[in-house]
Amino acid sequence: MSGHGLAIAIAVVLVGVTVALAVYASRQLGGTGDHYTAGGRLRGWQNGIALAGDQISAGSFLGITGAVALTGFSGFYLAAGLPAAYLLILLLIAEPLRNLGRYTLADAVCARFEGRLLRGSVAVATLIISVVYMVIQFVGAGLVSQLLFGIDYWIVVLFLGTVTTLYTVLGGMIATTYIQIFKASVLLVLVAVLTLVSISRTGWNPVGPLLHARHTLGDKAIVPLHMGTTSSLENVSLSLGLVLGFMGLPHVVLRFMTVRDGRAARDSTRLAMWIFAVFFLVLIILGYSAVNEVGPAALLKANKAGNLAAPQLAQAVGGQVLFALISGVVIATVLAVLASLAIASSGAVAHDLYTQVIKHGDVAPDRQLRISRVSGGVIAGIAVLVALAAKDKNVAFLSNVAFAIAASSTTPVLLLTLYWPSFNRAGATAAMIGGLIVSCGLVIVGPDVLGGSHLFGLSIPALVSVPAALVFAYVGTRLGRHNPRLAGTPYAEIRRRAFGGGGAAVRSGAREPAPVPASANH
User: Fold this and answer.
1) Rounded CA gap, 207 and 195, in Å?
2) Which one-letter DSSP state was computed for residue 42?
3) Under 8 Å CB-to-CB from 443, ≥6 apart: which residues?
4) How far is CA 289 from CA 193, 292, 484, in A?
5) 140-172 pLDDT, tens per residue?
6) Closest by alpha carbon to 373, among 29, 58, 3?
7) How distant, in Å, are the alpha carbons of 48, 50, 255, 336, 370 from that of 21?
8) Which DSSP string corresponds to 346-371?
9) What is the sign, positive or negative, of the torsion defined by CA atoms of 297, 299, 302, 305?
10) Cα 188 → chain centroid
11) First-to-last CA distance in the chain?
12) How far apart (Å, rounded) are the C-alpha atoms in residues 47 and 69?
């Protein structure tokens, strides 16, 4: 069997396993609670592997390996902030989210401040962030599948978008968790094998690929590129977006609502943090190995953003078998991450926008579930259209845009809801809408969209948009401080529920929350 034929066979087997897991899990679904949060029954280790799997994705694996291969140590900045982000999640939000959340990110915020405008703006932020993240997965899968099958990129993206989203949305959070555990385990094993094979060619020295790159390419391979003022600010902005944005990613937040209790939330975060830290350190080795074994010219010829560096390395050091295994598992990786994103985004539409904002909570659970499934397909269609125009964007850059938007909207509102006693609904709404507009607007007028005619110099706007969101929060809170209707649930009660284990998330079979009183929705 040829290398491409073997790769196709492996991809089909892996996809078949994930479909079987989804079918098996679908038999355990008992209602909206199971669909959105697995009924809150997951153990810490299960959620920890699944949480790590959400970020051990096609985007991170392909994008960061390629960035290191093409830019040397400078590509490390794409990964450096994420282990720190996990630590902040552990310390600040893991347990409170489990205690306050129901089905969505908006539920956690609205546990303190219920209001249609606020809930709607959180839902819109969820949709924007999720669509950007979906695009990352489609781009990665499309590029690898193009290499595998020789089919045009756009055909692969359309096919994957249609097939994977349909069954992952229908499978619910239980299926998503099973698929994530399977996918993450297989990917970690294969990355370990690829790493061992790579370092065996440099005397079994883990830093051998770095030393070899320095010997052949000079100091530029291991020293960060010389940066002017704009480049230095870009890296600061990138790191700020990574560390803060990760806490506000909707599909990450949703994970903490699936576990049994606060202790399980903390345990899952610890496990994910260690998995993620080791994984991203290994990607540095793979990036340098790729430039050594494949060469910069061949990497650029395959894809100018370097997104195919990992499969090319696998083919160079392990032949067709390792190439096929790595390429096949990347396709399976897309299925798992798309599932989480589809549930988070469709929940924002069905649970937040339709049920709570439009229908004031008066929607039967079965109808909400149907709307969630339909909206998941529509959202995936939008993501596919964007992915068709983003073929040559480094997928790690796209993920950083998602982080920056989250860092400027959902993260500030979530943290201030949990930790600022004087915070009110006016401040939360202003921060959410203002931060979302500023971050998205600066990306649109930045160099990665407008090129040389850009109006804003930074590709990642977090350095400006995060402070802007905090200013909006402060000004809105000050302006609304004399309106008792904007105060929301007393902070002492929120603190007791969030940190004292007094919260009660809606679980499988539970009744939907009662309609929001009209007085709270102005």
Assistant:
1) 11
2) B
3) 401, 404, 405, 449, 459, 461
4) 13, 5, 61
5) 777 777 766 677 788 878 877 777 676 666 678
6) 29
7) 18, 14, 19, 11, 21
8) HHIIIIIIIIIIISTT---HHHHHHH
9) negative
10) 18
11) 65
12) 32
* Interatomic CA distance for residues 430 and 413, integer angstroms: 9
Residue 267 · residue 48 · CB < 8 Å = yes
Helices (H), 201-261: 208-217, 229-245, 250-255
- Amino acid present at 77: Y
Tokens found for residue 261: 């209790």
Both tokens of residue 265? 């939330």
Length of the chain: 522
Both tokens assigned to 154: 């756009």
pLDDT of residue 397: 65
Please give the single-letter amino acid code of residue 30. G
The vertex-206 CA angle with 203 and 209, nearest 5°, equals: 75
- Concatenating the DSSP letter of every residue in 280-339 gives HHHHHHHHHHHHHHT-HHHHHHH-TT-TTHHHHHHHHHHHHHHHHHHHHHHHHHHHHHHH
Report how far residue 403's alpha carbon sits from residue 136's, in angstroms, rounded to the nearest whole number. 12
29 token code pair: 């679904």
**Positive or negative torsion for Cα 136, 433, 87, 172:** negative
Rg (CA), the chain: 22
Task: Count CA atoms within 13 Å of residue 323 on its CB side.
Answer: 23
Torsion of CA 418, 420, 425, 430, to 10 degrees: -100
Token representation of residue 182: 């399977």
User: What's the pLDDT at 458?
Assistant: 85
Residue spans of the chain under pLDDT 50: 502-522
Enter the tokens of residue 206. Answer: 């883990």
